[in-house]
Design a protein that fits this description.
Blueprint (H helix, E strand, L loop, with lengths): L9 H8 L3 H11 L3 H19 L6 H10 L6 H11 L39 E10 L2 E10 L4 E8 L4 H15 L6 E4 L3 H4 L1 H9 L3 E4 L9 H13 L9 H16 L13 H9 L1
Parallel strand pairs: 4-5
Antiparallel strand pairs: 1-2, 2-3
Length: 282
């Protein structure tokens, strides 16, 4: 197996020969003949621990940054090679199902965002959207509010149905937690959940600036689409949810325990949203 590591993945060879990867790497460590091989074996175990901590979602760029933060020297290419040899592969994205209900009677509102996804401080631009998660009990709908400055999910709400109140609940959570200044830019899809009189009244009450993207134009909301893809790739597609309650608990743990506080974000220089905001405040 060791002689063919460059030709086949360790995972495939272990499955073919009916041995565990841990047993194989224990054998490799015991039989290492050079200092470099011994160093690679130790580094592979550290990489494996980081990969496991990330829920098997980190690719080589994030693993490399995490190692660097721990004071481990090495190159990104070297990390990528060791991950390939160890069969540590992050899951790729799947196609997203649209949940926005288009409102043919929606009032005309300008697209004030104009695909400018930058912000110079927190609570200046909030993207909003809805997605769905399948369970054996039926779909669970999730509304989110994303701060473009730090890519932090600042508000969210879940329900087995998709009423207009779901998006209002997510926005109210964000307002309560963040207390944004007036004239915050609020880009949204022109769906009925965001064009309703009740939702628009909530925006007016807090003096937010409504902005609607073009119909069916996902590029106007690329960061929000990317968040949904990340959530589903790293969490939803890895688990079979029997109940909505199970999905709700998993979503809470992912958003509040992992994504907002720990997950390294490439757009933020591989800091987590919370770390990025703390850096800004300091």
């Amino acid at each position: 197996m060791k002689a063919h590591e460059g030709q086949f993945s360790v995972q495939v060879m272990c499955r073919a020969f009916g041995v565990s990867r841990s047993a194989y790497y224990a054998w490799v460590r015991a039989g290492c003949t050079t200092a470099q091989e011994r160093t690679d074996a130790v580094l592979t175990e550290r990489i494996r621990a980081i990969f496991k901590q990330s829920g098997q979602t980190y690719g080589s760029p994030r693993v490399y940054v995490e190692l660097k933060s721990q004071g481990v020297q090495g190159s990104r290419r070297h990390v990528a090679r060791l991950m390939r040899q160890a069969g540590l592969n992050a899951t790729g994205p799947r196609r997203r199902v649209s949940t926005t209900q288009r409102d043919g009677q929606a009032r005309a509102v300008s697209n004030l965002l104009g695909r400018d996804f930058t912000a110079d401080a927190p609570n200046r631009k909030w993207l909003v959207d809805i997605t769905s998660i399948d369970t054996d009990e039926g779909r669970l709908y999730l509304a989110g509010v994303l701060d473009l400055f730090s890519r932090r999910l600042v508000g969210w709400a879940r329900d087995e149905h998709m009423p207009d109140e779901l998006t209002q609940e997510a926005l109210e959570m964000a307002i309560l937690q963040r207390r944004p200044p007036q004239e915050l830019l609020h880009p949204a899809d022109p769906g009925s959940q965001y064009t309703s009189d009740e939702y628009q009244a909530l925006l007016a009450k807090h003096r937010m600036l409504a902005s609607f993207s073009g119909v069916g134009c996902c590029y106007d909301h690329a960061p929000m689409e990317r968040f949904w893809a990340t959530l589903k790739t790293e969490l939803v597609y890895r688990v079979h949810y029997r109940t909505r309650a199970q999905a709700k608990n998993a979503i809470f743990a992912y958003i509040e325990g992992w994504y907002n506080r720990q997950r390294r974000h490439s757009t933020l220089g591989y800091l987590s949203p919370e770390q990025f905001e703390q850096q800004f405040q300091s």
